[in-house]
Amino acid sequence: MKAIFIDIPGPSDYEKVWSLQNKLHKMRVSGEINDILILTEHEHVYTIGKAGNEKDLRVSEFFLKDLGAKIFKIDRGGKITYHGPGQIVGYPIFNLNELKIDVHTYLRKIEEVIILTLDDFGIKAERKDGLTGVWVGDEKIASIGIKVSHWVTMHGFALNVNTNLKFFDFIFPCGLKDVSMTSMKKILGFDVDIADVKVNLKKKFEAVFDIEFIGQFEEILNEEF
């Protein structure tokens, strides 16, 4: 199955990419375009999903805004998470009916993409029973929060590559009060090339979802960025 790959240079504005997602989601639902994968890094931002609220903050909103971080309440599942420079955020806009998979299988496939990517960088990652996301030992390295409408997905995952982990100290990540976050940089002890990780993720998406990316969607990108 053919799909479109969009690599948005970062750090990108969260609200702009969210708007782009909504536009592309409507186009995918109507059948105007193929499945799409967006990869980017964001400026500092906290997003609160439908299951979350301000109780998942450990500091005031004013404190976070003083740090230069924005806060958005959005329509994905899950609670609160952080996005920022050094973190790859992926937004698959996939038609699950055409892929012939259900939501549970979709989530496990996203986890598999991340686990296989990390393995190529010498990091042994795994799932945890009853929890969505990817872990290295007892520390979480990737979070997943999605929305599915008309069987087309949006929102997605965040993989900590060179992320400044102190920004997670100000929240209860994914609403978990005892979770500790990690990154590829923390585990490996050096900065990891973001572009290399993006290329690897792209290849793993092709393998795990049995799709073939055919290039950028330049017209949409030129309109939005």
UniProtKB/TrEMBL annotation:
Reaction(s) catalysed by this chain, per the record, are: octanoyl-[ACP] + L-lysyl-[protein] = N(6)-octanoyl-L-lysyl-[protein] + holo-[ACP] + H(+)
Query: Where's it mainly located?
Result: cytoplasm
Q: Report which superkingdom the organism of origin falls in.
A: Bacteria
Location comes to: Cytoplasm
Q: Keywords for this entry?
A: Acyltransferase, Cytoplasm, Transferase
> CDD domains, per this entry?
LipB
Q: Pathway, according to UniProt?
A: Protein modification; protein lipoylation via endogenous pathway; protein N(6)-(lipoyl)lysine from octanoyl-[acyl-carrier-protein]: step 1/2
Give the enzyme's EC designation.
2.3.1.181
Q: Name one Pfam family in it.
A: LplA-B_cat
Q: Which residues form the BPL/LPL catalytic domain?
A: 31-213
Binding-site residues, substrate: 76-83, 143-145, 156-158
Site annotation (Lowers pKa of active site Cys) points to 140
* Keyword Acyltransferase carried by entry: yes
SUPFAM superfamilies reported in the protein's UniProt record:
Class II aaRS and biotin synthetases
Which GO-annotated molecular functions does the record name? transferase activity
List where the protein spans the membrane.
none
Q: What class of enzyme is it?
A: transferase
- Which HAMAP family is this protein grouped with? LipB
Query: What's this protein's function?
Result: Catalyzes the transfer of endogenously produced octanoic acid from octanoyl-acyl-carrier-protein onto the lipoyl domains of lipoate-dependent enzymes. Lipoyl-ACP can also act as a substrate although octanoyl-ACP is likely to be the physiological substrate.
What more is known? In the reaction, the free carboxyl group of octanoic acid is attached via an amide linkage to the epsilon-amino group of a specific lysine residue of lipoyl domains of lipoate-dependent enzymes.
Q: Which family does it belong to?
A: Belongs to the LipB family.
What's the protein name?
Octanoyltransferase
Source organism (scientific name): Candidatus Kryptonium thompsonii
